[in-house]
Amino acid sequence: MAFSDFNLSPRLVAGVTALGYLEPTPIQERAIPPIMAGRDVMGLAQTGTGKTAAFALPILQRLENGPRKRVRALIVAPTRELAEQIHQSFNDLGRQTRLRSTAIYGGVGMGGQIQALRSGVEIVVACPGRLLDHLRQATLDLSSVEVLVLDEADRMFDMGFLPDVRRIIHAVPAQRQTLLFSATMPDDIRELAAEVLRDPLTVQVGTAAPIETVSHAVYPIAPHLKTPLLMELLNVTGNGPVLVFTRTKHRAKRVAEQLERAGLRATSLQGNLSQSRRQAALDGFRKGDFRILVATDIAARGIDVVGISHVINYDMPETTDAYTHRIGRTGRAERTGEAYTLVSAEDADAVRAVERVLGYKLERRTLPTFDYRTAVAIEHEFVRGPRQPQGQRSQPRPPAPAPRSDRDIPRGPRAENAQPQYPLTPIGSRMERTWHGSGTGAPPRR
0.70 cut: is pTM over it? Predict the structure, then answer.
């Protein structure tokens, strides 16, 4: 199928051509026709599948010949980065239509946003909190909205935005077209879809499982050795862009600073940064000024960087959905990618949950170039010995041994005597090269 098959206006065809789009992606091929026909649509697709253009092109087509200087389309997104990305897509695709879009989100002053709204725009891309601020101050009129888009609805739920989204829905006209896009479909999002969509058409591309162009491995490691191991992994992952995920914004900042002090081109993207610094970090990563971006789950929403070779989970994500979202940043647009996760004892249940989603055991690996015994063993559950009787002189504990198997996601002092269940594959081995070259994401058959 070609974009010409959609009967887009000449101005939109020019926008598509200028961006170098040759043929639609599966989500675009399946979603654009019903959206152009006015149907409510529920789109289930992973990040990196082209879903922004799947709703942007029909919206631009609908608005092109209608009234101007009133808000006719509202797109609600969970993060500033994603809102800015969607806004830019509308500008790029609709450059010749002269339809105007603006993005409104927190972290910056409201003055410029108010001025843009007063000048008259047809498309607003907004984060829920700042959108409600504008509604409370009567600086935004949604009475003319014809199309409402809820993008990455599952992530908005994860971030606690569902009550805000319901308030926004009540502020737009009941007679409208509604489009809901989500990578996963938890019960709360299914209930929301039932409330806001009328006779929707469900368009699903792929599944909620991690994409098949990504291969996965875990590296069992004691928590105090994570940063040294991360540095060694970064030395053997080539020169491509690497995205590192941490669980907290403070850890993202600290890890990025440690990598930078080690001479690596790294920066962080986390909630404590001002909007200008967040944008500078993201732009620097896109342009290659920084090879490594350390980010939290929330801060990383909306990152659309071509060619990310590796995603490394410094911390195991809290849910399988979060794992899916994280590793979806690599292996995009039919490229292959690698997903590495540093795991410790408390992550055992989370690892098993991810394995259930994948349908196979994650390969456990050690890194031959990393000396697991040289780091000083600190007081920790992995190296702490049995409590000594009072008055008895304690004997020094040896350094933590290198984990030898998947069983050695260490579980205390007995871990070094555990028997392997699955063999480890050292980096650079023939088996690993064969698996990576397959691009299927599945481990080799044993």
Answer: no
